[in-house]
Amino acid sequence: MIATRVQAEAFDAAAEAAALVAGRTDLGALVTFTGLVRDTALRLEHYPGMTERQLGKVAADAAARWPGIIGQVVHRFGDLAPGDPIVLVVTAGRHRGEAFAAAEFLMDWLKTRAPFWKHEAGAGWVAARASDDDAARRWEP
Amino acid sequence: MQLLYFAWVRERIGTGAETLAPPADVATVGDLLDWLATRSPGHAAALADRSAIRVAIDQDFVAIEAPIAGAGEIAIFPPVTGG
After folding, report:
1. What interface predicted TM-score (ipTM) does this complex get?
2. CB–CB of A54 and B4 under 8 A?
3. Which domains does chain A show, CATH number per domain?
4. Upper half-sphere CA count for residue B10 (Cβ side, 13 Å)
5. In what order do the strands lie in the sheet containing A78-80?
6. Is residue B22 part of a domain?
7. Tens-digit pLDDT string for chain A (141 aa)
8. Is B56's CB within 8 Å of A113's CB?
9. What CATH number is attached to the domain comprising B75?
10. Which of A22, A49, A96, B80 has the most CB atoms around it within 10 Å of its CB?
11. Distance of CA B13 to the CA centre of its chain
12. Residue B35 placed within a domain
């Protein structure tokens, strides 16, 4: 099971990771990735409803590719300051290879599939990056 | 049908949502974009560069050739930039 959540509030990465593996004694790997707001304050717009739906689909894809993996994804929206955490991906499994791979897959796919748009203070809407499309494409069959 | 706009598409059109009934010959997403672009200078500006437009029907991404028959909610927006 890979759960997903969309929220305006900050998250506690360590608490999310601890909650994910609480009570489990069969896991050998726990991967935590936190994305931070770099350089410029921004407002993150999203499409309520579709955001949850697309994050759920990305999580289901990851769970199908790595059946032993459990995870938690949290993505924020609203006003964020430089250095603020913006996205969290936590994965856990028996071995590190699948946990790292699933975390990277979740990030690559949510960046190109979840309907969020960054607006930078003073600079306007952030343009999509071809490198994000390339990163997502490498997971395609 | 309900049209939703996000990010700079919303800003250029000047509203985040409108309810419209396109004529019967508007069959695909591409037809819809062509028809919307005639509605105001803001619509035209928002939809001028089709390579920068993404469309979702009922919250799933669709291609430009997709039919719009039966759609409840059609969202039009730029490429996503989350993460």
Report:
1. 0.95
2. no
3. 2-137 (3.90.1170.40)
4. 16
5. A78-80, A42-46, A116-120, A124-125
6. no
7. 999 999 999 999 999 999 999 999 999 999 999 999 999 999 999 999 999 999 999 999 999 999 999 999 999 999 999 999 999 999 999 999 999 999 999 999 999 999 999 999 889 999 998 889 888 999 887
8. no
9. 3.10.20
10. B80
11. 10
12. yes
CA distance B23 to chain A (A): 27
Q: Which two tokens stand for residue A124?
A: 């306007």
B18 vs B6: CA distance, rounded Å: 12
How far apart CA A53 and CA A70 sit, in angstroms, is: 19
SS (H, E, C) A13-51: HHHHHHHHHCCCCCCCEEEEEEEECCCCCEEEEECCCHH
Write out the residue range of the structural domain in which residue B35 sits: 27-83
Angle between helices A50-65 and A96-113 (to 10 degrees): 150
Q: Provide residues of B within 8 Å CB-CB of chain A.
A: 4, 6-8, 56, 59-61, 75, 77-83
DSSP 8-state symbol, B78? P
Distance from CA of B79 to the nearest CA of A (A): 6
> Residues B68, B26: contact at Cβ < 8 Å?
yes
Contacts of A116 in chain B (CB under 8 A): 80-83
B42 domain residue, yes or no: yes
| Distance in angstroms (rounded) separating the CA atoms of residues B13 and A100 | 42
Q: How many domains does chain B have?
A: 1
- The candidate with the shortest Cα–Cα distance to A9, out of A71, A111, A86, is A86
Residues of B in Cβ contact (< 8 Å) with A112: 80
Q: Is residue B57 part of a domain?
A: yes
